[in-house]
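The instructor's notes for this session suggest beginning with a concrete chain rather than abstract definitions. Hand out the sequence below and ask the class to guess, before any prediction is shown, which regions might be ordered.
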Amino acid sequence: MYCQSGHLRNHKTDVHGKEGETDRKGASCQSQEHMNQLSKGELVGIGLMMFSIFFGAGNLIFPPALGQAAGDHAIPAMIGFLVTGVGMPFIGIVAIALQGGKYIEFIGKVTSLRFASGLLAVLYLTIGPGFAIPRTGAVSFEIGVRPFLAPESITIGMAGYTALFFIATFFLALNPNKLIDRVGKVLTPILLVFLAIMFAKSFITPLGDVMAATGKYIDAPFTQGFLDGYQTMDMLASIAIGTIIINSVRARGVEDPKALGKICVFAGIISITLMSIVYLSLTYLGATSASVLGLSANGGQLLASAVTILFGPAGNMVLGVVICLACLTTSCGLVSGSSWFFNRLLGNRISYERLALIFTLFSFAVSNVGLTQIIALAVPFLVAIYPVVIVLVLTSLFSGAIGTRYTVYRCAAYIALVFALVDALNAANLKIDALDQFFTAYLPLYPDMMGWVVPSIVGVIVGLILSAVRGEGSRAL
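After discussion, reveal the predicted structure:
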């Protein structure tokens, strides 16, 4: 995510500004007919758009770190990572398509307006000033600047670089325009070409041998990889940016939910294929690096060191410039999107400009705690919010069968939240001993910080029973 997801407002403006290309009479029939008339070029274009929105510089740092730590268990770990880092965002887009792009309204309807507002506020803080925006500054520093600094200059260098980075972010966020979007569209292909060259060289001349797995990857590589996929935040972002994809398809005259879903599936296959190839290649790069680099503090340092070995300082400089600019466009878009959301949520009581300044200053401060610390701090919050979003997305896929039995959605989501909060306390090393011992003994997957899975399934069953007792109808939403 993030290098292109930063163009939320620009994409929305462009999409809403286009008129439909087909007559809207008989929407269901006509949109299905139009879907069949879409050229391969149109489908490929939508797929590449989906890829560019979800994939960014931030996604580069996690697969190599996973590969280095997982070692000879990298394959099952990467499969778990692909489930949450690729599969879930794709499913999120499909779920949004099935709701006609009005997913925010859907969440408010099936749960409650208060719950939906709280969830979205936490979501925007997470993919905004809480973690994602500071991470853009930290990632670009680790890859683009740190390799050229002496150890004693790192702290001062980071403060100076991030200050300039976020000053530029603030002024660009005050005047978001098509230039940022166009820069992003140019940078993504350049980045992919550089990565393709790097992957080819790493396969032809590997950095070193694959080492043994370490840490939790020894006994539970799939589960740990699944949790690592949270760090991309792409599943969370799919809720916020899904409208971009849906409106782009609608601009071509498609309105029927089934047609939207089919187009998103076809385009999504293109997107997830590209993302999977990039992630698998980065994982291989990381897996072969441990014998040469040792265990790196984070994926940014690992990638920068690997590029230096493969291409020398010149290669590192090219990658650094591209990623710094890409992260700047991301940061601008995320500040803009977060400020717009909270300005609307607060009823314009705090201006967009003031919110942008607050979020930028806060992000600057957080970015200077360092990339490794940002990643560590994000884990408990992601463990808390991700299960709720996963449960809502998965249950919404069956909205046609569940219909207006809102108790099903509420039981599943609320129960998932309770157990996700327990997992989050464990991730933050704040375990409640008696509760921890009980759940360890009786709750499946609890030791792996996935104790929400079985209770959420039970929540769906309980919701079905309660909805039947209350006489809730199952008519379509």
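Then share the key points. The chain has two domains: 5-397, 398-477. The two ends are 31 Å apart (CA to CA).
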